[in-house]
TrEMBL record:
<dbReference type="InterPro" id="IPR006523">
    <property type="entry name" value="RinA"/>
</dbReference>
<dbReference type="InterPro" id="IPR013324">
    <property type="entry name" value="RNA_pol_sigma_r3/r4-like"/>
</dbReference>
<feature type="coiled-coil region">
    <location>
        <begin position="58"/>
        <end position="92"/>
    </location>
</feature>
<protein>
    <submittedName>
        <fullName>Uncharacterized protein</fullName>
    </submittedName>
</protein>
<keyword id="KW-0175">Coiled coil</keyword>
Length: 161
C-alpha cells in the first residue's frame, strides 16, 4: 500500500511541475545553444595540479553540455509520459487533472467549468490518478478478483529528476 501512495505522490508531483519542466527544457536548450561552440585546446593555458592531473576547460564544457542534454532528455521523457497517460483518460478526467494540477485552478472554478459538483470532480480526479498510476507503473488490478495484470511499461526514470 505504501508503494502505491508513493507512486501516486510521484505522479501528482510530476503533474504539479509540468509547466516548470517545460520552462526548464527551454532554459536548458537556450544554454546549450549559447555553449554550442567549443574551441580547440591551447595546452599552454591549461593548468596541471600537483598530481599532474590534467584539467581542460573544453573537457569541462563538454561534460556540462552532456549533463544539460541528459537533464533535457529526462525532463522531456517526463513530459511525454504525462502526455501519454493523460491521453488514455476520458475527456472529463483529463480536463480535471489538467485544470487542477497543471493550470492550478480551484475546485470551485473546475466544477463550474465542467458543470459537476466539487465532490464529483474530486472523485473523478482520484479515479484518474489511479488509472495513471496503473499505466505508468504497469500494474492493473482487477477490482473483482484482486489479480494484477501488466499494463504499459512507461520508463519512469524520467520522473526521478
Amino acid at each position: 500500500m505504501g508503494t502505491k501512495i508513493n507512486q501516486i505522490g510521484i505522479i501528482e508531483e510530476a503533474l504539479n511541475n509540468y509547466n516548470y519542466y517545460k520552462k526548464m527544457i527551454r532554459a536548458y536548450n537556450m544554454l546549450l545553444q549559447q555553449n554550442n561552440t567549443i574551441k580547440g585546446i591551447a595546452y599552454d593555458s591549461e593548468k596541471t595540479k600537483a598530481t599532474n592531473k590534467f584539467h581542460s576547460d573544453v573537457e569541462a564544457r563538454v561534460l556540462k553540455k552532456e549533463e544539460l542534454q541528459t537533464r533535457v532528455q529526462k525532463l522531456q521523457n517526463t513530459i511525454n509520459n504525462i502526455d501519454i497517460a493523460l491521453s488514455t483518460l476520458d475527456n472529463d478526467s483529463s480536463t480535471i487533472l489538467k485544470k487542477y494540477y497543471i493550470e492550478d485552478e480551484s475546485w470551485v472554478a473546475i466544477s463550474q467549468d465542467i458543470h459537476m459538483s466539487e465532490r464529483q470532480c474530486m472523485r473523478i480526479r482520484d479515479h484518474a490518478i489511479d488509472k495513471m498510476q496503473s499505466l505508468l507503473f504497469a500494474q492493473i488490478e482487477d477490482k473483482k478478483t484482486g489479480n494484477i495484470q501488466l499494463g504499459l511499461d512507461i520508463k519512469l526514470d524520467a520522473f526521478q529528476i
